[in-house]
Amino acid sequence: MNTQKYYYTDSYITDFQANIIEAIPYDDKFAIRLDKTYFYPESGGQPCDRGTINGEEIVSIIESQGVTLHITQNKLQEGLAHCHIDWDVRFDHMQQHSGQHILSACFYKLFNGETSSFHIGKDSSTIEIDIESFDHNMAEQIEEMANGIIYKNTSITASIVDKDTLAALPLRKQPKVDSNIRIIDIKDCDCSPCGGTHVNSTGEISIIKIKKFEKLKSSYKFEFLCGKRALKDYTYKNYVINKLSAYLSSPDSDIESAFNKLTDDYKGLQKQVSSLRSELISYDVEQLFLQASDIGNAKVITKVFDNREFNDVKLIAQGLASKPSSIALLASKGQNCQMIFARSEDITVDMNHLLKSILPVLNGKGGGSPKAAQGGGSGDIDAALVAVVEALKLQ
Ligand SMILES: [Zn+2]
Q1: Are residues 139 and 236 located together in one domain of the fold?
Q2: Distance from the alpha carbon of residue 357 to the mean position of ligand 1, in angstroms
Q3: Is there a smaller number of Cβ atoms within 10 Å at the N or the C end of the chain?
Q4: In the chain, which residue ranges form alpha helices assigned H by DSSP?
């Protein structure tokens, strides 16, 4: 026997008595059947209610072949029970769902956009509208119309209609069921079949705000907030804007230009740093080349940098290798050490071979070509480089 669904006629009841007909084992939980219920099961894009039956928390509510199943962790005794609905959650869902009907109606009226899906999420809700293009100006028009309906505080009524009455109604969309058709009528705004819980007047929605939108293949997806969710979002955004305003020493209205200026300044500084870095690298190359030791017909440069960015060290090695008859044996010492060995075209010593000869001492890894090789390891890099130089002298 189907559960009598009282939430169809009254969304505002939070406490009621009902008879527990049975408690059926349901996975590792129990599915409680009541003779009647005001609890809304998850359906039509609206999440289920929260609440208790005889103090036992309901973990989810589902609809199965006309029967509402209230899922609990523990078994409940058959008989009369006190049921309680969490009003904050219920009212939030009512605000979001009624807000969605108004939004969908506005999309339809203004841009002929039909709603293809709707979902109330934990923090925000989404609708998908079949529309080819959309922009911020259109979003403002939608919001103005939707919130105008809220300002008028018009009535929202729910009723089950017969087929003759249905045929005469200006429906925005056709019902998915063919019996017990419930119509939600928002006066002078929208008339749609729906099984959800709704507020009694549009004023209770307080505000409808489109948070963001994105283009999908042939539609747009909109994230929106109604009522308390919109207030919460405003509170957060106000907090962030005030922080930014103080940080940028700029009034709210100028934050964007102040931020753009900061970004431009940062990019300018990055360019300057990059140019100074190149100059410093060129200077290092020249200074190190002056200090090179002559071994055979090669000029050998060894240097261990402390905490120098390895990219810089590599550029210095490249610079030295572009000089005639040079061998650069460079390293950067931090927590670990990184090495780069590079040579000029006119030298024949194999850098890869040279690097690999000291890797075992440094417990390191690495490799490269006869012309340039790099690696990393740990241990006494200074001593290791001295050993490399001694090896070079013997060649
Ligand atoms: Zn609905």
Answers
A1: yes
A2: 75
A3: N
A4: 87-111, 136-152, 163-168, 227-247, 255-290, 310-321, 351-358, 381-394
